[in-house]
Each structure stands twice: as structure tokens, then as C-alpha cells.
Amino acid sequence: AVVSTQSTGRMITSRAISNGLRCMSTVGFIGLGNMGRHMAANLVSNGKDVVVFDVSSDAVNQLEGKGAKGAASPGEVAAQSNVLVTMVPSSPQVQEVYEGGVLANMKPGTLCIDSSTIDPSVSKSIASQVEKAGGLFYDAPVSGGVVAAENGALTFMVGGSEEKFTEVKSYLDLMGANVIYCGDNGNGLVVKLCNNMMLGASMVAAAETLNLGIRMGMDSQLLSDILSKSTARCWSIDTYNPVPGVLPGVPSARDYEGGFGAALMLKDLGLAQGMADASNTTTLMGSLAKKIYEELCENNELAGKDFGVIFKDLSSK
What we know:
four-stranded mixed β-sheet
């Protein structure tokens, strides 16, 4: 397959892998949460030598059972890797991983790919530090959720030097279905945060709509089916429906466990609002969604559930 990366913003869906690129490389993976563990497992199943670290020893043990090699620290991962993928929850944790071990131990020429969703300004700072240490850094946040991570069907939004993008893509293709070059460092995160601002608002709207229809006597399955075929169709309805029992295999089918946490959605809405404030951009729905999730996350139990738990919260009132 022919891969073109000439124009910024062009979507590339080819699954072709350039086996000649770093064919003997070891891929380091730091962060084995709901998303990261599946991403790392896909690298292993696609034949890569993978060394992993997570603060949870159980998570490391699970990946070792799939064929990965465990490490005792981020620095130990960096020392053994030619390519390093990080997938942790927030800006401070990315800084801790890099400044607390990776930068001091990474090999010259290491490709660093951060799939965390963090503040673009923090990502640019890390990119600068990585370059000074002799490596190259890409922000590559993901979209698609846990199911897409497990199935190797994620979408990656990539920011960084176009010079090595084809090589970066060869690794991301093992974990995703779409790899999109967005331009300079930080641009991938700008796109991701815009996406999650819209996703948070749409989930609130979907939850309100479904709750209203159900209270008016509509069957939740029938209502969802119709909305999925109408102008209100969206991912929060047809792929990630927040009403228990409508779709199998999604967090709402298992008491909102194992998905994208409401607290993480609140974090991303806050980052998006920070971008809006810095650029003097009006975001009425985005700021309202942030307020709604702030109130939801005051309940510690709900804060740890998948962000679709907003339906459970609304339907209880």
C-alpha cells in the first residue's frame, strides 16, 4: 500500500507496516491502565519485543503473561528501548515519567510517543527536553475508547516532526486503524481536546435525551435504535450508549466499569477550557459540560465510573 504523508491533516488508513524500520527494536510501554494494557498487548501480538512498566505490579504481571518483559521503573524501560510509548492519565504524571527517569536513561535517537491526553504546553516542554537528550518526541493521543484499544482500532492524532512520521506510524498502525498527522508538537493534543470537549457535551445531551424519552414511556432500546438512524445520531448513542442493557460490551452494560472515567473527562474538559481561555474563544456548551461533570465528580463513587454514568446520575433525580 502507498502511504502519503505530505499534507497536514490528511487521514491515513493503510495498515501497511514498514518491516524494515527498526526491525530489531524494543518498544517500551509505560502506563498499563484501561487503554494502555490493550495497546501494549497489541504490540506484543504483532510480534514486537515489548518491555513494560506500570505502578501496578498486577498490570505488569498480566502483560508478562502475554509475552512482554516487565521493568522496575520508567528509567529501566527507557534504557532498554529504541521506541517508547507512554499512556498515563495526566500532565503531572507525564512529567514525572520523563523527568524522573526516562530523560536520564533513554538511548540517543529514541522515538518517544506520548498517547496521554495532557496540556499541549506541557507536551511541547517535554518534546524540547527529549530533543536536548537526543531523542524525538511525538504527541499521539487516541480516540475510540477501550473497545477500540482492545481491537487495535484506535484513531491516533499525531503532532511532531514530519520527517520521522512514517516510522512513528509503523508502530501506531499495530495499535490503531487510523493515524492522522496533525502538524507540529502539541497539535495532536489540540485536536484530541477539541474532540473530547464535543464528546463530553454530546454525552450529556444523549443522556438527557434518553432519560426524557424513557420517562415519557419510550422503550430505551427502541428509542436508541431510532435516534441512531435519525439526525440526532452520534457515537454516544449508537456506539457507547449510556443506558444499561441497550448495547453489549460497553461500560453501561457492566455498571459503568472499565471505561473512560468521569474524572478523566472532567480533566479533559478543563484542559479544553484552558485552551479556550488562552485563545479568547467562547465555548458555551464546553464550559457547561465541564460544570456538569464537576458536580457529578463531587460524588467520589461516580467520579471513578465511566463518563456515561451521567445517565445514571440524571435518571436518579
